[in-house]
Amino acid sequence: MDDALVIFTPSGKRGRFARGTPVLTAARQLGVDLDSVCGGRGICSKCQVTPGYGAFPKHGVTVEPGALSDWNAVEQRYKDKRGLIEGRRLGCQARIEGDVVIDVPPESQLHRQVIRKAATARAITMNPATRLYYVEVAEPDMENPSGDFERLCEALADQWSLPRPAIAPAVLRRLQPALRKGNWRVTVALHRTGDAGQITAIWPGLHEGGIQGLAIDLGSTTIAAHLCDLGDGRVIGSSGVMNPQIRFGEDLMSRVSYAMMNPGGAAEMTTAVQEALTRLATAIIAEAGIDAAQVVEAVIVCNPVMHHLLLGIDPVELGQAPFALATSGSLALTARDIGLSGVAEAAQVYILPCIAGHVGADAAAVALSEAPDKSDDLVLIVDVGTNAEILLGNRDRVLACSSPTGPAFEGAQISSGQRAAPGAIERLEIDPVTREPRFRVIGCDLWSDEPGFAEGVAATGITGICGSGIIEAVAEMRMAGLLDASGLIGSAEQVGSARMIPQGRTHAYLIHDGSAAGGPVITVTQGDIRAIQLAKSALYAGARLLMDELGVDRVDRVVLAGAFGAHISAKHAMVLGMIPDVTLDRVSSAGNAAGTGARIALCDQEARVAIEETVHHIHKVETAIEPRFQEHFVAANALPHATDPFPELRKVVTLPEVSFNTGGGGDGARRRRR
Amino acid sequence: MDDALVIFTPSGKRGRFARGTPVLTAARQLGVDLDSVCGGRGICSKCQVTPGYGAFPKHGVTVEPGALSDWNAVEQRYKDKRGLIEGRRLGCQARIEGDVVIDVPPESQLHRQVIRKAATARAITMNPATRLYYVEVAEPDMENPSGDFERLCEALADQWSLPRPAIAPAVLRRLQPALRKGNWRVTVALHRTGDAGQITAIWPGLHEGGIQGLAIDLGSTTIAAHLCDLGDGRVIGSSGVMNPQIRFGEDLMSRVSYAMMNPGGAAEMTTAVQEALTRLATAIIAEAGIDAAQVVEAVIVCNPVMHHLLLGIDPVELGQAPFALATSGSLALTARDIGLSGVAEAAQVYILPCIAGHVGADAAAVALSEAPDKSDDLVLIVDVGTNAEILLGNRDRVLACSSPTGPAFEGAQISSGQRAAPGAIERLEIDPVTREPRFRVIGCDLWSDEPGFAEGVAATGITGICGSGIIEAVAEMRMAGLLDASGLIGSAEQVGSARMIPQGRTHAYLIHDGSAAGGPVITVTQGDIRAIQLAKSALYAGARLLMDELGVDRVDRVVLAGAFGAHISAKHAMVLGMIPDVTLDRVSSAGNAAGTGARIALCDQEARVAIEETVHHIHKVETAIEPRFQEHFVAANALPHATDPFPELRKVVTLPEVSFNTGGGGDGARRRRR
C-alpha cells in the first residue's frame, strides 16, 4: 500500500508515512510540537491528539473512519484510570492507517503559549530550561559493571537522544533508591542550557506532579514571588513578604551606608534576605500543596544593591561614582549559592542581567515584559517603587535610568501613611465646592458617603492612607484649590473650609477624624506634600532626562509598572506631574512588570538569551552625575510643573490659579531646598 | 635587514623573526613551551631564558654578541629585587637582533616534567587544570557601564585569548576589593576543563605565592594527603590522619552494615569523613605556611564505599550483589560539594573514576601511576590495605579485582598488633637453630641484639608488632620450623624451644616479655596465624583468579603498592604465599601508588582524560560471586600454598617439612572453615 498522508493542525505540517507508523513518531519526524514525557510508552498521556474525520477541502483530503488504528487496550486503560476527552487519542498508541488530519490541542503542545492578562503584552511561549524525561534504565550487570548514573545517561541518550548530563551530588544521593523503587524506571528533571545539561531532580517511575519554578521580584521593600508550573505556565501561587533588610535602612543608599559603617553589615543583610527568600518559598510552596522537590528552578529580578546583597557582595561600590557593579551579566547559579532552601536541593537559579550600576535586573525584567525595543510608538515605562526605574524608547533605541524617588509613593514618610493593607484609604475625591472628602478603604467596596460604609469598615477600621490614596489626596487638593502650584496648603480662611487645620506655621487637610472612636486622625500635612513633591520631581526629572537624551518633548504613551503602578490613577498622577503630559487614554498599567519579566524568563529560556542581548543595546543614563537632572528636578517641584504646560491634562482638568504664599513664613522656599 | 633566525633548545623549534621581536613573542609563535604569568610585562620572571653565544655547528649558526637587545632597566630592576642567574634574560624584555640560540631552562617550561623517585615510574608532566593569569583590567566608565567581572573577562580575552570563564559567588565577592587594591591589576586562578573555565581565586596585582593542590588518598583506615605546588609539581607537605569512620566499623562491610542498621548512619559517617578531610587539609596547609586561598584544587582517590560515603550516598548497594555503584565515572565537583573547608572557597575537586563496585578510584589511581596498560611484561600489581586492589596485565589487556583481606596486614586483629608507629616491632628474624628472635623497633636504628638497643628504645618502649613485623614473624616462624605448612604452631616439646608458650589448646611464640618493666608481653598466637592466613589467602586467591582469567600460570613481575607495601619484605611475603612465585628481584615496591596516581591527576589534566579512558578497557572480575575464588582461597590457606609449588622461592629459602597436627585438637581444621 502507498504511504499515508498525515497533516497536523494547527501547524499545517504534513508528510507521508508508512501505514502503521505511530502518530507520535510522525509528529516527531515532521518537527510537530507534540509533548511526551514517557517517550511513547502510553503512560504519560501528554501526547493526546484529536483526529479529524470526513472531508477537509482546505487540505485536499478526506479522512476515512479507519484512518487511525483501532482504539487499543493501553488507551482504554488510561481512559478508565484518568479519563480522556471524547475523540482524543494517545499519539503514541494510535497508528496511521490512511490519510488523516490530526489536531494537536494546545495542552499537548510542548511550546504552548500562555496568554497574559494585559492586552498589550506578548504571550509567553513555554520553553522552560527544565523538562521532564521518563526513562527505562538497564539493570546493573556484574559482568559489565557500570554506575547507575552511567546507565541512566545511556538511557537518556538511547531513548531521548540527549547528551550526557551532569548530576549534582544532592541528586546523585537519590538516584539509587529512585531506580529501585521505580523498578528501573525513573523520571528526571533535566535543566539544559546550551548543549550541557544537569539533572536537578529524580522520581521513581513516571512522575505526574509536574515541575514548578519560582519567579521572584526581590524589591527593596517587598519580596514578591509567583509559583509557576513549568509544564503549562500557570501561576499556581503568589505571595509576598516584607524585605527584612528594611531594619537596616529604608532605602537602598541607607543600606549601602549600613554596609559601609558596620563591619559585617553586608553579610548581616545577605543573611536576612536569603532567609526571607527561603521563608517565602516555603510558604508559597506549602500553600500550593506541592512537593518542594518539584520546584527545580527560580528566576530572580532585583535592583543592583539587592542583587549584590543577595549574592553576598559588599554593595559599597554602588554607593559612589562610578557605581561599578561587581558583575552586570546574567547569573546561572544554584539555590545553594544564594542560600535558598525549601526548594529542590539542586534547584537552578537564574538572575537577569543588570543594565547599569543604578539600573538593575528588575529594569531588565520590565524591558523583557514590556518590550519597549519592539514598540512602534515612543513609550515611557515607569516602574514605581522605592527606586523608580525608567525606560524610554521604541524599536529604534531604548534608554534607561533610575531615579531615587524614595518610599513616599508607597505610603512611607507620610504622616498618616501606611502600606496598602485593609483599613488603608486607597482612593479619595474632594468636592471642589464643599471641599469635603469621600474615600474608599481597602477591604470595603463602598465609598465613605454611601450607605453601609460604617458597617463595611467596622472590621478593619480606617487606619491610614496608602500610596495610591496619598497621590489622589494631593492631586484632589490641588484640583479643589486647597493647594497651590508651589505645593503650599491654604489656611481655613484662605480656602473657606474648616478641614484646613493649623499645624505650627503650616496647615493640614483633615480627611478623617477617628479619635472619638479611639482611631487615628488622618490628615495630609504640609510635610506630606513636600515628601510627595520630592518623589514626583525625581521621577519626572528622570523621565525628562531620557527625553532630552532622545531629543523629544513628548512621548506617545506611558506605562506605569510596579505593583503600586497598578493602583495609580492616571489622571491624579498627571495632576501631580509625576509623568509627562499625554492623553489619559495613553497611560496604561502593566502591573508588576518586573515580576512578569521574571515569569517570562522562567518559562522561556530563549527569553533569557533575548534579554541578555537586549540589555547591551539599552543606553544607560546616570542621573546622579547629570547636571540637567538637578535642573529638571527643581522645575518639576511645582504641581504639575513650573514650565512644562501639560496641555493634554488641562483639556480634561481645571487647576485653580491660587497662591497661598503669604510672603512671611517662607516655609515653602526653605523646604524646597532640602 | 633580514629577519633573524631563532633556534630554541631543547625543543629545537626554529623560525625567522623581524629584528626587535621579543623572545617571548617568538617562543609563543613557534609554540615553544615558555611560561609567563604576567603576559610579558616583565614582572613575573617566569619567562627566563639563556641565550647562547658563539658557534653552534649543530644548528648551523654563529651567535654574535649583539644577537639580543641590551640588558634593560626592567631586567636590572628585577635582578636587584629578586636576583637572576648569571647569563639569564627575561624573555619578554630581550629582543631578537640577530641569529640566536636560546635555551629554555626546565624551570621556565610550563609543561616541565617532574621526576618521580621510583625508577620504573613515568615522569609527571606539569599540565594542571588550574593556571594563573595576570591581567590589567579597564576601569569602570559611567558612560559605558559594565560590571567589573565583564571587564575582567574582556581583559582575559584581549590579553590571554581566553574564552569567557564562569566565576563562583565566593570569588565574585572578592573581585571588587582585589581590583581596587591591585589598582586594576589582578592575578586570577583559572580552572579549565575542556573549553569552559572557572575563576577559582583572585589576588590583587601579581600573585607570587603560586597555587597549590591536594592529592588525597582516602583509605578505609587512614587518610593521606600531599600538598603539591601546581607550578612545579613539588610536594610541599604530606600528612595523614586516621579515618574517623573506624569507630563505625573497622572494615568496609561493617561500615556498610552500620549504614543499613542505623537510620542516619551513612550521613553520620559522611560528616565524620568530611570533617576529617577538612582537619587534614587545614593542618597540612598550616604546616606548609601557605595561604589556604592558594589551594585551588584537590584530587581524591578512594575505594567505592569511601567514595559513596564521602559524597553522602548511602553505600547499601555496595554491600550486596550486583554491587552497583551510584556512579562509576569521574566527578568534577567543588570543595563545598564534599564539605571540604580550609582550602580556597571555590576550590575544585576531581575524583577519579571507579572501575567497578569493588574496585574503586584508588585502583584507578594505581593503574594511572603504575600503568600496567603500558607494560611490556606481565605485571601483577597488589595494593595492600584493608581491602586489596589487584591489577594484572600488560599493554594487551588489564584485569582488576579487589579482595577482602581485612586489616590483619595492618596489624589489626592481631593479639599484639598495633599500627606502624614508634615502639612497634617492624622487622624480625628467628635463628633457625636457637629459635631466638631478633627484631627492630620503629624509632630505633638498632637490632634488638645490638649494643645500645635498650637505650635506643627507652623513649618509646616496645609496644607491639605492626603489619610488616607480623608478616616477617609468621614467615620466620615458618622458615625456622616453628610453624607447619598448615599454619599450626608447634609446642615447646615439638620444636624444642621455651619460647613456645601453651595457650589453651594451642601455642604462641613469645617475641618479647616486657612485663617485668610493666610493658606488654608480645607473642604471635595461633589466632594471629589464622588471621594472617585468611588475609593472605584472600590476596593470593584474587591474584590467581585474574591469572586464570588471563590463562597464565605465572607473572613476570610483582609490584607491591600501598603505604604498607613499601615495608613488606618480598621474601617474607612469598614465604607466606601472599603473592605468586617469581624471582625475588622481580618484586618491587611502588610506595603509595594510589596517592601517586592522585598526584599525577592533580598535576596533569590530560592524565585525567587518559585514566577515564583506560578504566573502560580494564576488565573487572568480581571475586565475591566467582566460585573459583573460594577454591583458590582454600588452596591458598597453606604456607606458602597447598598445591602451587613456588619453585623460585624454594631456590632461595628452605621450608622445613614439619607437621604439628596431633590429630586430636582439630583446631586448625575447624578454624580454617570460619
Automatic annotation (TrEMBL), chains A, B:
<dbReference type="InterPro" id="IPR027980">
    <property type="entry name" value="RACo_C"/>
</dbReference>
<dbReference type="InterPro" id="IPR040506">
    <property type="entry name" value="RACo_linker"/>
</dbReference>
<dbReference type="Pfam" id="PF14574">
    <property type="entry name" value="RACo_C_ter"/>
</dbReference>
<dbReference type="InterPro" id="IPR043129">
    <property type="entry name" value="ATPase_NBD"/>
</dbReference>
<dbReference type="InterPro" id="IPR001041">
    <property type="entry name" value="2Fe-2S_ferredoxin-type"/>
</dbReference>
<dbReference type="Pfam" id="PF17650">
    <property type="entry name" value="RACo_linker"/>
</dbReference>
<dbReference type="Pfam" id="PF17651">
    <property type="entry name" value="Raco_middle"/>
</dbReference>
<protein>
    <submittedName>
        <fullName>ASKHA domain-containing protein</fullName>
    </submittedName>
</protein>
<dbReference type="InterPro" id="IPR012675">
    <property type="entry name" value="Beta-grasp_dom_sf"/>
</dbReference>
<dbReference type="InterPro" id="IPR041414">
    <property type="entry name" value="Raco-like_middle"/>
</dbReference>
<dbReference type="InterPro" id="IPR036010">
    <property type="entry name" value="2Fe-2S_ferredoxin-like_sf"/>
</dbReference>
<dbReference type="InterPro" id="IPR052911">
    <property type="entry name" value="Corrinoid_activation_enz"/>
</dbReference>
<dbReference type="InterPro" id="IPR042259">
    <property type="entry name" value="Raco-like_middle_sf"/>
</dbReference>
<feature type="domain" description="2Fe-2S ferredoxin-type">
    <location>
        <begin position="4"/>
        <end position="108"/>
    </location>
</feature>
